[in-house]
Predict the 3D structure of the following.
Amino acid sequence: MTPDRKGETVLEVRDLHTHFFLRRGVVKAVDGVSFSLRRGEVLGLVGESGCGKSLTALSLMRLLPKGGAQTIKGEVLLDGENILERTPAEMRQIRGRRISMVLQDPQTSLNPVFTIGDQLREAIVRRKRAPHAEIMKEAVAALRRVEIAAPEQRIGQYPHQMSGGMKQRVVGAIAISGEPGVLIADEPTTALDVTIQLQYLKLLKRLQAETGMAILFITHDFGVVGRMCDRVAVMYAGRIVECGPVRQIFEAPQHPYTRALIASVPKMTGPVGRLTTIEGQPPSLMDLPVGCRFASRCAHVEQRCLDAYPGTVRVGEEHTADCWKVMPA
Amino acid sequence: MSEEVPLLRVEGVRKHFALTKGILFTRTLGHIKAVDDVSFDIRAGETLGLVGESGCGKTTTSRMILNLEEPTEGRILLEGEPIHALRGEALSAYRAKVQAVFQDPWSSLNPRMKVGRTIAESLIVNAWGNRARIDERVRELLVQVGLRPEQAQQYPHEFSGGQRQRVALAAALASQPRLIVLDEPVSALDVSIRAQMMNLLKDIQEKDNVAYLLVAHDLATVRHMADHTVVMYLGKIVERAPTAALFEDVRHPYTKALFSAVLVAWPGQAAAEIELKGEVPSPLDPPSGCRFHTRCPNVMPHCSQREPELREVSSGHFVACHLFE
C-alpha cells in the first residue's frame, strides 16, 4: 500500500439491514446503515448499548451470532467487491487478509490452552506455507511490531501469564498479521486502565501510519473518539443519525441526539454542576416508530418528526445529519 | 483536616495478603502488599473519590471499610469507634450504617427475587417494622430513586442496567446509612444514563446528608462527584487534596500521567501528554523507595532508595514525592 493511495475508498457500506428473526417478532438491530471508509482513515462509530454498532461490525465480518440474525438487505463493498455475496469459504480467505477485527475482551479472544506462539502461527499458516522456523520468526516479528518486550520468551507463554494490555497487543498482532486493508476495532480499550489505554491507542496509530490500513473504531467514549478518529458516525436505534469530521461533530453537532449525548459527558474542565441528561428510553427495536427514532426523547420535536423519517441532510463538508430541523448546506 | 471527629477515619491501614503454596505443608512465598499505610478521613455528607488503576488497592481499601476484610495493621473508625472490634449486634448496626453499591448491576441483584424483596431485605433483617410499614418504605425508596412504586413486584431481568443500578441504590438506602461505598457505580452504564445516576446520587446526598466513598477510575466522574480526592498507586496514597484544588494543580508525576492519559474529548484541548512506559509492577515485590520510580518521567537517583512521605504542599493538598521536599 503506497501512501498516494491514501484517501481512496476501501470500504463502502450501503443501506445495511441486519435483523434478528425471533418467535416474538423481528428485532431491527441494524436498519439502514450507510457509510464509507477511506484508506488511512479512522472512522469512529459511537452510540449507546443496543444501538447496533457491534452488530454492524459483525455484519461486515459476516460473523453474525447464531439465533436468527440475518443480513437481509444492503451492500458491503470491500475494494469495490460486495462481500455479502461471497461464499463462506471465500469469506475465510477474506477475513484476516483484507478485513480483520479486534474485540473488547482479550481474555475471550485468545485460547487459554494454547501458547501465544501457537495462536500467532495459526494466523500466519493460513496465508502461507513455510518451514516452521521461518513461521516462528515471523511470529516473533509480529510481537515485536506491537511492542512486546522480549518476544522470544513471550512466544512460549500462555495468555494467563500476560497482563490485559499485553494480551490486547497479542490480539492486535494476530489481527494485522495478514496486512488487512480494514481493521474493525470493537471497544478494544474498554477493559484496559487509562494509562495502558493511551499506550494501546498510540500503538494503533503508529501501526496505521506504517500500513495505511483503514480503521473502523467502535466505542462509546467520546474521549477515545477525540484522540483516535478523523471522522465519527453517531448511531441511534439501528441507524446513523449524524456523521462528520470529529472537530465539527464536537464543536457544532447538528442532530439533537448528538448534542444531548455530548452535553451529558462529564468534563475535565469548566463548571461542575448538574449534568444534562436525556430523559426516556430508546424505542424498542421490535416496534420502531415511523418517524424520527429520537422523537420521543427530543426537546425540539414537531408533528413532522412523528409523521416521517427525516432522511439524510447534508449540513456541511462531509457532514450529514438525519433531522428535519437542520439547515442543509 | 479539621479537629472534629470525622464520620470515618482510616488510620495507617495496611493489608498484606500471604501468597502461599501447597495445601498440607503450606509455605508462604511472600506477601502481596495490597494496601500499605493508607490514611484519610470522610466527613458526614461529603464525597471522597478514590482513584487509581487496577491493583492500586482501592478495592481492598473499600472492602476493609465495609468490614469484609480485616486490616493487617492500622484501624478504621466510624464516628470514633474502631470497626473491626465490633461483634454481634454492634456489627449489624455497623452494616446498617455503611452500605455499598457495586459496579455490575447485572450480578448484584438476586435474579429470583422481586426487587421489592431485595430492597426490603435489610429492613427485615433489622426487624425494622411490620410488613405493612416495610412495604410502605420500599415504595418510598423506589420513588426516591426515580422508579415507580409498583415496580417492586418486578424481577431484575425486567429492568435496564440503569434501572437496576437504581434498585441497588434503593436497597443500599433502605437502612438509612451514613456512608455508602460506591464501587464504580456508573462505569457499566451508558453515557446518558450515567449522567442521570450521577445527578440522582447528588440529590440524595443533599437530602439525606449521606457520605459517599466513590471508588472510580474515571477522573471526570470523580471531578463532578467528589469533595476530596485520593489518588493511589500500588497500595500507597500518592496524592490527596480537595477535588477542585487537585484538578486545578496536579502535583505528583503519577497523577499528572493519569490526568494526561484521560482522553479529553475536545480535539486540541489535550494537555501535553505523558505516556508511561511499561506496566504497573507486581505488588508482590513492589519497587524499593518510591513505588513509582520505575515508570516516573522525573525520576532522581535517591527515588529508588528513600520512600517519600505524604507532605502538605498547599492547604489540604498532600503529595508523596521527593520533588516536593
